[in-house]
Amino acid sequence: MTYLIDAWLDRPHPYLRILNRDTGEVCAMLEEDALDELRDLGELDFAGLSSSEPGVLKELVRSLFLFCYARALRPAGHDPH
């Protein structure tokens, strides 16, 4: 399965989506608060988003998926800050 990163970071309410390249289905969605958290943790490499290196992009997608799953498993109302 291949993925497409759809990132809109230069807007008032940024977001990043990971799409299934074949179907267009949204597999993961990170909105402003999640992007801020990733940035604060030093886990989001914006330069990696513009990379054309398959290995860099694969690792970025893997990290984003792991972050989304970890965030979904947090107890309700848990604020990491």
Automatic annotation (TrEMBL):
- The scientific name of the source species is Pseudomonas indica
Q: What is this protein called?
A: Uncharacterized protein
The record lists the lineage as: Bacteria, Pseudomonadati, Pseudomonadota, Gammaproteobacteria, Pseudomonadales
- Top-level division of the source organism's lineage: Bacteria
